[in-house]
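User: Here's a chain of 175 residues. Predict its fold as tokens.
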Amino acid sequence: MSRKSINLTKSQLARKSPAAQATVHVPAPGEGKRGEQGYLGYLLRQAHAAVRLKMERTLADLGVTSPQFAVLTMLKAYPGLSGADIARLTFLTPQTVGVIIRNLERDGAIVMTPHPVHGRIQQWTLTPRGTTLLKACRDRVLELEKRLVIGLDSKAEITVRRWLAGIAADLQDEA
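Assistant: Prediction complete.
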């Protein structure tokens, strides 16, 4: 079987190959629809993704992920949470929280105790090692938090915090 040679003109090649067509400019964060012209929901998601990536990189050498940091933070604030409670507070699936809890327990950062009334419910609390680990994480995350409020005075920061918390409270009933 012989192969026929293919001779295409430049216009035919352009129609056949998307790569041969003009390259589209992808805007950087802050430009076009990724900037002030963008949808608020998209801008919130874009900001969240940037903060999460920076946090992952900031905590990497401590061996802690952003979701693990969230779990440790919630257990410090609300000791004795169940896995289901943690999932709701951290916006993670119960399956993901299960993996995180197993890893943090294996590392000695958290400990389980049965609920005093409902023995099947497992309550989680930080161990001294978990408290030390969380402090190391928080020191780094607080530096990131300082970057987030650059350019805001205290009144503007309070306004942004209220606005974000208000969105969550207002839309939670509809979820």
